[in-house]
Amino acid sequence: MTEKEEIRRADGCRLPDEEQKKADVKFMRAAMAQARKGAAIGEVPIGCVIVYEGKIIARGYNRRKNDHSTLAHAEISAIRKACKKLGDWRLEGCTLYVTLEPCPMCAGAIVQARIDRVVQAAENPKAGCAGSILNILQEKRFNHQVDLTRGVLQEECSDMLSSFFRELRERLKEEKKARKLAQAQTQSQDEGEN
Length: 194
Prior knowledge:
Blueprint: H1 3-11, H2 18-40, E1 47-52, E2 55-61, H3 64-67, H4 74-86, E3 94-100, H5 104-112, E4 117-122, E5 147-149, H6 154-193
Parallel strand pairs: 3-4, 4-5
Antiparallel strand pairs: 1-2, 1-3
């Protein structure tokens, strides 16, 4: 048994060869492009692509706020499109690339869709179900386990999320300040009319 096999068995993650690493970076960049689309419409920048036979067959980004739906996650959107593209609910032979570790709902959908492999960038310490909190993707009691590669472009994706939330906090702070100012002006006008 080689050292790489032992490491893989210890944490359950795939150790890709150099060619696969290059492809993983390429497709994760495509997922990041989807995340930026989400950010452009005010959504948390999480993006996803699904690859089959070396080609992207589906894309998705978060749309929860815009669609007013808890279900509008990047992975769910991409899975729905991939199923339609392949004409099957089973996505065997597919790899899903996502910029943030899947939540419980998305991890469950990935297992149910029989996706072979997931490549994730950033970890999700508050809701991650690919190893941070739980590992639904590789739960041995399920009838399907997913091959998992973690940390592809992790820093870039983490930075994108951090920047988004930092800008959101600043914007909300400014909006709150503007509301208080408007309330004070309205109150002052009301007092002047009396």
